[in-house]
UniProtKB/TrEMBL annotation:
PROSITE patterns, sorted: HTH_ICLR (PS51077), ICLR_ED (PS51078)
Keyword set, alphabetical order: DNA-binding, Transcription, Transcription regulation
Organism: Paraburkholderia monticola
Any GO BP annotation: positive regulation of DNA-templated transcription
Keyword Transcription regulation: yes
Protein known as: IclR family transcriptional regulator
Origin: domain of life: Bacteria
Record domain IclR-ED: where: 94-276
UniProt keyword DNA-binding, yes or no: yes
């Protein structure tokens, strides 16, 4: 979102003549479309906490003027991406096509899916894979356990990195100064009375994740829900993703997560690493 807002705020210059297709793209960065950037900023403003928006909401969240936000929203309605009831704009199923472009072309979710399913079958709990995106853990693959009430986030969902097990694992690979700068730039809120939402406490949790090779979030995101995550490294040894399991705290204890779930997650992470 930050990158898109930056693009929205830059004035798009006059377009030069059509470039030779063999010339580097960098030479023609000014050919960017401001209107497209504004539309994408509106799309990214929708989320779990903003499932519907008014024009004013969209303008504020996307950093646009009200007229620009209104034009973008109405265009998305016309194209079938949003519904409009006269006041609120709500995403329609067509919106899934945008994320589908990543999921259908990226090898990581495709390679991970059978391993996630194997881990789910062994643990009888939902297992997910996430990557880091601008301070959020974004879930790119998931094997859902069949239960009346599901746990965790859905495919494409985003969790704040500072208070999620997945996010802390992903942040643990970055230089501490970079992590510190990120944490100082985001509003850390206490989502429950167990949430660690201060700089020193979160840094300590991230260091622990780096040292121990896993992280646990114990009812920090939501009371009654816990999660554990382990890193998935690429061939260069860098953390590329995080493999996680989410459980109901009343059914699975933290001790069970460490003793029984951690070995399974680590086994699947190692198998996924060998495939990258």
């Amino acid at each position: 979102m930050a990158l898109i807002k930056s693009a929205v705020n830059k004035e798009v210059g006059a377009l030069p003549t059509v470039a030779d297709e063999n010339e580097p793209i960098q030479a023609h960065a000014k050919e960017g479309m401001g209107g497209l950037a504004k539309g994408l900023a509106i799309i990214e403003a929708f989320g779990a906490s903003t499932p519907r928006m008014t024009v004013s909401d969209a303008a504020q969240l996307a950093g646009l003027s009200r007229p620009a936000a209104r034009r973008c929203l109405l265009t998305l309605v016309e194209l079938g991406y949003l519904a409009h009831d006269g006041k609120f704009f709500t995403p329609l199923p067509r919106m899934l096509r945008l994320g589908g472009a990543y999921f259908s072309t990226s090898s990581l979710p495709q390679i991970a899916q059978p391993l996630l399913a194997s881990a789910r079958d062994k643990l009888q709990e939902s297992v997910s894979l996430a990557v880091l995106d601008e301070g959020y853990a974004v879930f790119v693959a998931r094997a859902e356990a069949v239960r009346i009430v599901s746990t965790g986030v859905k495919l494409g969902g985003r969790l704040p990195a500072y208070c999620s097990a997945t996010g802390r694992v992903l942040l643990s690979d970055l230089p501490e100064q970079q992590v510190r700068e990120h944490l100082e730039s985001v509003p850390m809120k206490r989502l429950t009375d167990r949430t660690v939402a201060n700089l020193n406490g979160v840094l300590k949790a991230i260091r622990r994740a780096a040292e121990e090779g896993y992280a646990i979030s114990d009812e920090e995101l939501e009371i009654g829900m816990s999660a554990m995550a382990v890193p998935v490294r690429n061939r260069s040894g860098q953390i590329e993703a995080a493999l996680s399991v989410s459980v109901f705290s009343g059914r699975v204890s933290i001790e069970t997560l460490r003793d029984n779930f951690l070995p399974v997650l680590r086994e699947m992470a190692e198998r996924l690493q060998r495939s990258l």
